[in-house]
Each structure stands twice: as C-alpha cells, then as structure tokens.
Batch of 2 targets.
Target 1
Amino acid sequence: MNWENQQVVVLGGSSGIGLSTVSWLAAAGANVTAVGRNQDKLDKALASFGGHGRVAGEALDCNDRAALERFFARAGKVDHLVLTLSGGEGGGLFSELDLRALRRGFEAKFWPQLEAAQAALPALRRDGSMTFVTAISARIANPGVAGLGAINGALESMLGTLARELAPLRVNAVSPGVIDTAWWDKLPEAARTELFEQQARTLPVGRVGRPDDVAHAIRFLMENTFMTGSVIECDGGLRLT
Ligand SMILES: NC(=O)c1ccc[n+]([C@@H]2O[C@H](COP(=O)([O-])OP(=O)(O)OC[C@H]3O[C@@H](n4cnc5c(N)ncnc54)[C@H](OP(=O)(O)O)[C@@H]3O)[C@@H](O)[C@H]2O)c1
C-alpha cells in the first residue's frame, strides 16, 4: 500500500502500542494525527519524530463526545482509524473484584472507543478501515481476567456486525497479550519484573511482547483489504498456556 497522502488518526497515539503505530506510519509517509489526553505527553512522544511535518498531536479526551465531533469535523477526510485507548481497571479474582473499578474500566476503554468510533464515521473514507485494540483476556480463562475479558469481549463481540453494517469500511481488532508498555506502570516495579519474567518463561515465544509486535499486526489489518470482522491474536501464545 502507498501510504503517501493517507490520513490516519491514532487514538491513544502518545504511548505504547499507539505510539509505535504512529512511528511506522510516519516512516511509511502517511499523514498521522496522534491523540491522547495529555498535551505534554503528546509533545514529548512526538518530539522523537524530529518535527516530522506529517505527524501532528492533538489533546482530547475520547470520553468527551462533543470534543470528538469537533476533532473529526476539523480532521477532514480520514482514511484509517486506529483505537488504542487504554483502561486498566477491572482485573482481579471475581470473588474479590471491586465492581466499581470494573465500571471505571468500562468507562476508560469500552465507552471511549465506541464514542470515538461512532463520532469518526462521517469523516472516515467509506472503504477505509477501523482497527480496535482489545486484549487476549477476552479469549482466555485465566483466573483474574473475568472483568478485563468482559470489557474487551464486549468490543470484540461487536466487530462482525460493525463490519457488515459499515461495509465497505473494514472493521477489525488486534488482541494483544502481555506487552511491555506504560500500561503496566500501575504495578510496583518488582511485581512487574516478576510478571514479565514469569511470562517469558511460560510463553511459547519466550518473551513478553513489544509495542511494535502489535503495531505490526495493526498494519497488516490496515493494509490487507481482504480482512474485515477479524480479530488477530497477538499474544506470543499466551492463550495456549
Ligand atoms: N500493554 C499490554 O500488555 C496490553 C495487553 C492487552 C491489551 N492492551 C490494550 O492495548 C491498548 C493500548 O495499550 P498500551 O499498553 O499501549 O497503553 P498505554 O501505553 O497506556 O497507552 C494508552 C494511550 O491511550 C491514551 N488514552 C487513554 N485514555 C484516553 C482517552 N480517554 N482519550 C484519549 N486518549 C486516551 C493515552 O494517553 P493519555 O494518558 O495522555 O490520555 C496513551 O496515549 C489498550 O486498549 C490496552 O487495553 C494492552
């Protein structure tokens, strides 16, 4: 695919998987707008592109529908939309799970992705693409992931219908396993290191994921015009363990 003159919006583009996606899109020559809530974080993240003329950052909260609509009205035509907004709350054994935290988890991931996806429709090219980032928690039965699985499974369960309703727009998702990003910063460093080492020992691929592993799968879904209604598991084999 020729990325020159393609307009891509990456929601959650100031960190982790989203930032890695912005990075290769910029290198491929696309016009990219990265969105996050924090302007300083965006400026710092995008500074690494050395003032690359085709990468812009815009601060907005994807829970704010009016701000989303103003953003997409200004954006003009958008060829591809990538949604990598993070949540984080909602994990833990069900018997101990704080359901208020799970509600906050839905508010931080499920709802902003839907608000953004719907608000983007008037701007999105009819045969462009929309790629969600969900999580492998939706596809495994490991203790402690029921809540996270519910948030991500809710998004994944909508994909097929969206792919049919919104065709020829293609709607897909990448479902990552454990990826070394700021998402894990909420864990104390020792616990994070222990988790990553434990994952590296048990995963068939022998390591935790990197943001560019997932960005690569996102790129595949954007470029392959025969893919729609699909979820790519990008988890190093976590779902098999
Ligand atoms: N890392 C993992 O192990 C892993 C595993 C499975 C699935 N995932 C999923 O992958 C996606 C990306 O995660 P990541 O690890 O790359 O996380 P991350 O490094 O924390 O990045 C999240 C990005 O989303 C932005 N963001 C969050 N809420 C937003 C909102 N309401 N409006 C606008 N921007 C918002 C953040 O910027 P601001 O903070 O400035 O808003 C940041 O740019 C998430 O959906 C996550 O659930 C991650």
Target 2
Amino acid sequence: MITVFGSLIGDEEIANVTTCMKSQWMGFGKNVEIFENKYKEKFRLNNFAMVDSGSNALFMAVTLLNLPIGSEIILPSFTWVSCAQAVLLAGHKPIFCDVDIATMNITADKIKAHITDKTAAIMVVHYAGLAVEMKPILELGFPVIEDAAHAIDSTYNGQPCGSIGDVGIYSYDAVKNLTVGEGGGITTREKKLIERAKIMRYCGIGKSGFDSALNSAGGKVRWWEYDISEPFIKMLPTNIAASIGIAQLDRIDHLQNRRRQIWDYYQSELSSVTYLIKPSEAKLGDRHSYFTYCIRVPKRDELAHFLLKNEIYSTLRYHPLHLNPLYKQLDVCLQNSEQLNIDALSIPIHPRMSDIEVELVATKIKEFYS
Ligand SMILES: Cc1ncc(COP(=O)(O)O)c(C=O)c1O
C-alpha cells in the first residue's frame, strides 16, 4: 500500500536513540535544549520551546494569551480537531470561519463576518504548508495564534510561518515534515511568553529539584522544594524524541527537496486531467512546505475507492469541524469548507515514496478520468 503521509528515518536517528537509551536518561533532558537551539537556528526563530505534541502546544498557545474566560476565538472549520479542542478546553468558544476555496486558507474578509464584541483572538492554520495571507489578518488588531503544524519550512514574505503572529505552534508527529514520533513546538513573539511556556510544560514548576541542587552553588538548603507559578498540564518532551529531532534537522533540506520533487511532478502530470483542480502554489516571496497535496475532483469518493483498490491510500484532511456532531453550529453555512468536504482529496506525498510509486499515483488518477 502506498501511504498518503510518511516520514523518513535513517541510521542517524537510530544511532541517536541508541546513545540516548544507553545514557539511561530518557525523559526531559539536555537533548531537548540541543534540539531547541538547533531548531531556532535552522528556522530563524527568536523564542522556541519543545513540548510533547502539537495539540498540546495549541492548548498552551491559547492559555498564553490570557483571554477572559468565554471569549470567542475565530478559526477555520477546515482544520484538525485539536484547534477547536484547545479553544474549548481553555474555556473559550470556537467560532468557525470559512476558507478561500483556492488556497484552502482562512482570510481577513471571511474572518470579518464573524467578529463580535466577544471576539478576543484569531487562530489561523497554514493549510498543507501554504502560508495564510497574514498582513490583513494582523491588521484586524486581534492577537493571532498561528497553527504551523503543516508549515515548519514555510515562509510568508520571507518570515518563517509560526513567527508572524503572537504565538505559533508546530507538530512533529509521525507523519509531519520533521518527525520525532510524537512531539510539538511553540514559538512566541515575546521572550517572556516562552519563558512562561517552559515553566508551564513542567506542571508550572520553574526548576526541578535536581537542577536546583546542581546549580544552586550550595546556596539552596532544601533543593527539593519548588515554586509553582501556575497550574498547568505536564507537556514535557523526552530526550529520546529530541534525539530523533536532532537527526531529522540534519536531513530536513533533503526531505523537503524530495517533497518538492513529488509536488512538481504532480503539478505537471496532473495538468492534463480535465476538471481536476490542483493545489495553489506559494505566492512569489513565500515558501511552501509541501506537507499535503490536496486536489479537487469530480467523483471524489469513487476516485478514493479506485485508488484504494490499486493499493494507493488517499484521504481528506479535514472533515470540517462545524459538520461534526460535537461542534455542529446549525446556523453556520461555510460554503467553501462544505464544498471541500465533497470534492477534496489528499493524495500521497512524502519523502519515502519511490519514483515508481509517485508515477503510479499520477497514472492511476489519469486512468480513472480517461
Ligand atoms: C493543523 C494541525 N494542527 C495541529 C495538529 C496537532 O499536532 P499533533 O499531532 O502533534 O498533536 C495537527 C496534526 O495533525 C494538525 O494537522
């Protein structure tokens, strides 16, 4: 079966994990700091902290904004469920917004229709790795959370996605452009927010007893006593995950090049398929991360089943949240999201795919519509 998403792990990742395990220090530790510094340098971020998942990073991001309980946060319906869960679990109300049909991204104009006197923030998602048009959204004057789970290597007007709004998040789960198995990251415009995030991720405790004992220069008599600055969930990343991430950072350019090759091949090969709408390219000056290749086609369900019969897995990222029973907002009609729910399909793109597999995907799509 050709999978729709995938990562590429090599000998370096395996060696790093082995070294980490042999060191007997598998939980939070030095590797996390090494990963954080390397990641900051690679993606030109000022403030960055690793956490245990992108979903938890979203919850942390919403909490960091200190909004009044019950605030409304506007976000796309066409996104992963964690975006809405983070808003709800932080005590706020998710307000679902439509996306532009061509970019599949939220826009300032679509957001404007949902602004009320309770609106306190906006959450954008750089869908598939294509940068959201951020400038007009920032001009609306609300705090902005950027979900850059798909967009670790993407840029907007030369700036790394995730670093444009107030708080940005990344995901390093098993199928993301950079994987550590399960993991996430958070970046903030203000330094003091990342300092708070680093305390929050350890249940609101600033320093472990071990740290205090080693670094107190003998001044602290009872190093096992600690200050708790606020109640928060434990979101610590592990040394094992960070050791995988360190090796992934060394190969990220190669991984991204492979994704771009596959993307370019599909863009050229699928041009001949009548009625197939290809995904938008990044605008001049921006960079795409090529996380997802999402086409729009007639007879979408039939195509998905045809591909499956031919050992090619495809899927839809995402079933719009406002159509999900938990979040159903009956008064909302989000026409473009509902259209994407009918005709959009993500087809395989990941760095482990061979040329033969990539060609097979394109050939089978062409065969279906011939
Ligand atoms: C848009 C988006 N946001 C957030 C997440 C959550 O990331 P994680 O899987 O690391 O929790 C995902 C995961 O797929 C995602 O696609």
